[in-house]
Amino acid sequence: MLETPADSPQAPQSNLAVPAEAKYETPVARTSPFVYLLAIVFDLFSGWVNEKVDDALLTSLCVLGFTMILGVWKKGRPWRWLLLVWGGVPLVLAYYQYVVRWPHDRSQWWGAFLQILAASAGANGGHYMRDMIDHVFLKKDA
Question: The whole model's pTM is what?
Answer without folding.
Answer: 0.74
